[in-house]
Design brief:
The chain has strands at 2-7, 13-17, 21-28, 31-38, 45-52, 69-75, 80-86. By secondary structure, the chain is mainly beta. It has one domain (2-86). A four-stranded antiparallel β-sheet has the order 2-5-7-6, with no helix packed on it. It has a three-stranded antiparallel β-sheet with strand order 1-4-3, with no helix packed on it. Strand 6 and strand 7 (80-86) form a beta hairpin. The two termini are 22 Å apart.
Length: 87
């Protein structure tokens, strides 16, 4: 196994190899990233999704059932908060 860094795209959908184990979510040089332990020679993919925390409870909306929690990160000096889940 190796550890890889994946940048989370603006779409909020990130595919990583199946069998990967997300280790942490952090912002590096202003870019949100996921670090994951990736098996050698795996096939298929696993989907990670980004969910924002609304700025006010009035803007909260229902979301599809969330999968396994991966991590949380902040942008814009903490004004924007996002959570990453396995789909």
């Amino acid at each position: 196994m190796k550890i890889y860094r994946y940048q989370i795209p603006p779409s909020g959908r990130l595919e990583i190899p199946a069998g990967s184990e997300p280790l942490c979510v952090q912002v590096q040089h202003g870019i949100p990233c996921v670090w994951a332990r990736v098996p050698e020679g795996g096939t298929g993919t696993k989907l990670l999704r980004l969910y924002p925390t609304p700025l006010t409870p009035l803007l909260a909306q229902e979301v599809a059932p969330l999968g396994k929690y991966v991590g949380t990160f902040q942008l814009d000096a903490g004004n924007l908060v996002f959570h990453v889940f396995e789909d």
